[in-house]
Amino acid sequence: MQHRIVRKQHNSKLCFICGLKNGSGLHASFYETADNELIALFTPTEEHQSYPGRLHGGIASAILDETIGRAILNGGNREVWGVTIELHLEYKKPIPLGCQLKVVGRVTEDGSRFFRGTGEIVLPTGEIAVTAHGRYLKAPLEKIADFDPVENDWRVVEKPDDPTVIEV
What we know:
Layout: E1 2-8, E2 29-33, E3 38-42, H1 57-70, E4 81-91, E5 101-110, E6 114-122, E7 128-139, H2 141-144, E8 165-167
Antiparallel strand pairs: 1-2, 1-8, 2-3, 3-5, 4-7, 5-6, 6-7
């Protein structure tokens, strides 16, 4: 299925998932779709392995958590952030290193204080490797962390190869 991209989300400097200057990080990019899903693209390396040639399950959990939690930002809502309350995963297939992976996240229930979401890691073959669902607390960023957007280099980094459509 093709997903039309409507907006790219911010990256930061040192976040393990999206930090572009974190030498051990995933350097994931996040794209909002016309159908209100969020798709993360990243390519895991040997630094991210558990068993040789396989992505560590904890890192799979981290990228799913980040993608589902960021889905609440779709449409430019910069006042609300998601703080994980619970996250449940089901590992279905091993995840290889060295190839681009797609992580799809979405909000499935949006309440006044909490939201729920689901997501999956999709292999290059189109098979689903991991599924997740979770519950998140809505909170403004200033209540979560002492975050300076300039110091943390929080910005949208446009790249020439940013997609306008992502096939999942």
